[in-house]
C-alpha cells in the first residue's frame, strides 16, 4: 500500500540529501528538472549516492564512478551492473515527500 | 552539498555544450616542465595536444578525483611511490636521453639473445626516440583504411573522431574508479584508439609496436577499443624485450567495448625494467553474444597490480583471462582477473599461471561475481603456482560472490614446486639441472604460451630461459 | 566481572588487560577485510548486557559425581550459565582425567590455562575477542593426562537463555602427550520458540585446544541457538609434534553467525582435519572462516566445508592455508562447496593461500551450484514429491560430513536440516 511520506523540509534540500525511511537510507536530489529519490546505497559496493555528483539527470557514485538515472534508478555506467530503486518524489507545502510502499 | 568551485566545470563527463570561448591558457614559454601534478600541468598537457575544451575539463575533474581518492590498502607494497617526485609530461631535453654506453650490460645482452634488431635496441633502451617504423606502419594502415578500421593514437582520435570518443571514453573505467584510473584520466598521453566497423574481421593482429614513438611506451597510455557488431580484432601490446623506462610509474588504462556478436582479443606481454611500478586498470564490456579474451603476460617491473576484467552484460557473452606472471628477484606480481556476470547464459574462464623465484612474490587476486536472478551462468577459474626455491612465495586470493542459484562455478588453485621425478627424468636424459628446470617451466606455461602469436611465444620462451639462468633481472 | 566470584589474581589481571584492549577498539567495520561481508553496525551490540546473576557458578558442588554416564565418558551441562551436571565415568576418574567447570580449574591448572589465555590476549583480532577475554562467564575444562586414551565422547551441553543478554562461554581442552579424546559440544537455547518476542541473546564463545605431542582430539560442535540470536566464536587449536585434530562444526541456528576455526601446527608431523556444515535459511547470515596454519615441516591439513543457503539467506566462507617459510613438506588442501537452494540467496566463497615455502603440496577448490535437475527429476519420477526429493538430495549432500559424528549428533543435525527444509517449503506455499 503506497503512501506519501514527508521526509524533510524544503529548506533542508539544496541539491543532495540523505534521509531514512523505515530505517532504510534514501537519497533525495534536486535539479532544474525536479526532485528525485533513489535508494541511497549504490548497487555496486557500499557507498552513499547522496554523496555523489549529479549531472544531466544522472548521479555519479563517488566510490567508483557508477552512474544511475535519477528518474528510474537504471544503471547508466559501470562498474555497477544492477539498478537501484527509484521513488516518486515531490515538493509540496514546504516539505519534501516521497511515495513509499511499506 | 556545497556548490563546487567555479573554476572547474561542474559536469562530471565530456559534453558538447561546455566549450568555453575565450579561455586563455598559460603561455607555453612561461610554463616550465617540472615535477609534480596540479591544474597547471594538466592544462599544459591539454594545450600541447591541441585538445577541445571538453577533454580538458574531463582531465581537470579527474585530477580532482585523484586528489580525493586514497591509495589501495591491499595489493603490492606501494609505499615507495612518491607522486610529487615524478614528471607527468614533457621532461627537459637534457634529462631524457641517455647514451648507449650508459645502458646496463645485461640489457644489451638480452637484446643479443632475443635477436632484437639493432635499430630497435637504442629505442628500447631509452637512447633517443628515433626508431623509424614509418614504412611498416604505412602499409598496414592502408589495408586497414580500406576496411574502415580506425587505428590511431588517442590524441588524433579526439580531434578526428570526437563523436566516437565522447560516446565511449571513460564509460568503461570512470575516472572515479580508483586512484590510478583518476591519475591516468588526468594526464593520459599516447596509447591506441581502435574502431572496427560492423562485420569486419581484422586478420592481422594490431600492434602498438608498429607505431613506436616516445608516446607508445609512455607512462600513462590510454587505449580504447571499440569492436562494432560482429567484428573481430586482436590487439597486441608491449613486447618481450626489456623496456628501460625513463620514469618509474606506468599507469595505463585500457577500455574495450565489444558490441553484440563481436570478438576482441587483447594480448599483453609486459617486461618493464625492475624499477617500474606498473599499475594498470583494464576492463572490457561484452554485450550480447560477444567474446573478450585477455591474454596477460607479466614478466618485468618491480610491482605490478593488474586485474583484466570482463563485464558480461549481454546474454550469450563469454569472457576469458589467461594470465602468466613471473616474479623474480625483488619483484611482486599482483595479478589475476575479474569476471562479472550481469546477464544470463554467460560463461567465463580464468586461467592463471605464475612462477616465483629468487625471492619474488607472485599473487593471484581475482573476482568472480554473479548477479541476482540470472540463469545458466558457468565459470571456471584455475590458478597454478610454481615456486622454484625456498626464498620465494605465492599467494592466492580468489573472491567468489554468487547471488543466483542456476549456476555452475568451479575454482581450483594449486601451489607446488618443480617435481623431483620430472627433474630426475630429464636429467637422466643428459640435461643439466638448469636445462631441465627451464624445460619444465616452459612446459608449465605452455598451454598459455600457445595462445600467443608465434614470434611472441618464441621470444617468451627465450626470455623465461634468460630469467631463470639469472642472466637478466 | 569477577567481583561476583573468587578467581586467581592472574585471571583477574588478564581480564583487566582484555578490558583495556577492548576500550581501545571499535566494533569491527566492513572496511576491515575480515569483516567486509558481515556488517555488525546495525546489530545494536552495545545494547546487550552481561547478566552476571544468571551466569554465575555459585552453588555448584566441586567434586564431580561418579556416575554411569551411559554412552559418554563424562558429561558437563550448563543451563543459563549455571552448571547443572558434572559427571565422569570410572574409567576416566581412575586415570586422572578431569572434566570440570572452567572457573574451578583456574587454580589447579594454572600453568596450561594461563598460557592459553595469554596467547589469546596476544593474538586478539577484534573487539569480540577482547570482549570474550574480559567477560567469559562459564565454561568447561577437559584434561586428559599422558598416554590416556578415552574411547567414549565427552558431552558438553550448554543451554543458553535470556533476551538481550550476552553469554560468553569458554571451553578449554588440554591433552598431554599421547592422550586421545573425543568431545561433543552442543549449544542450545531455551525459551526461543516462535511465540517469544525480544532480541534474542548474543553468544560470544571461545574454544582453546592445546594438543601435546602425538595426542589426538576429535571435536564436534553443534550450534542450535534461536533464530533471533547472534553467535560469534573463535576456536584456536595448537598442535605439537605429531598431534592430530579432527573437527566438525555444524552451524544451524542464530540469525547472524561469525565463526573462526584456526588450527596452528607448531610441531612437525601434525595433522589437521577441519570439517564444517552450515545450513542457512531465510533471514540468516553465516560467515564461516577456517585457518590451516603450517608453522612446522611435514604437517598435513585438510579443510572441507559444505554449505547450503536458501532464499533470503547469505553465507560467506573464508578459508586460509598459510605456510611459513620453514614449513617444508607441507601437504594442505581446502575445499568449499556451496549449494544454492533458491533465488535471492547469496554464497560468497573466498579460499585463500599464503605460501612461503616451495616444498609443498597445497591446493584448494571451490564449487557453487544448485541441486541437479536430473537427480530431482529422477526422484520425482519415482513417486517422491518435489519437497521430498529436495530433502533427500540436500541430506545426501551433507551426509558425508556427518560420517564420523557420534550417532546422536548425526541424527540431531539431519533432523534439523530436514525440519528447516520443510519449514521453508511451507513458507513458500503460504506466500
Task: Walk me through what this model shows.
- The complex is a heterotrimer of chains A (102), B (473) and C (431).
- With 102 residues, chain A is an all-beta fold.
- Chain A contains no helices and 11 strands.
- Chain B has 473 residues and is α/β, with parallel strands linked by helices.
- Chain B is built from 12 helices and 19 strands.
- Chain C has 2 domains: 2-370, no CATH class; 371-431, no CATH class.
- In chain C, helix 1 packs antiparallel against helix 5 (127-135) and helix 6 (373-381) crosses helix 7.
- Residues 56-62 of chain C have low confidence and may be disordered.
- The chains are: A mainly beta (102), B alpha/beta (473), C alpha/beta (431).
- The B-C interface holds B 74, 372-373, 385, 387-390, 392-417 and C 33, 325, 328, 338, 340-370.
- Strand 18 (393-402) of chain B pairs antiparallel with strand 21 of chain C.
How is this structure best summarized?
The complex is a heterotrimer of chains A (102), B (473) and C (431). Chain A has 102 residues and is mostly beta strands. Chain A contains no helices and eleven strands.
Features:
heterotrimer; A: 102 residues; mainly beta; Rieske Iron-sulfur Protein; four-stranded antiparallel β-sheet; 11 strands; B: 473 residues; alpha/beta; 2 domains; eleven-stranded mixed β-sheet; eight-stranded parallel β-sheet; 12 helices; 19 strands; 26% helix; 29% strand; globular; disordered N terminus
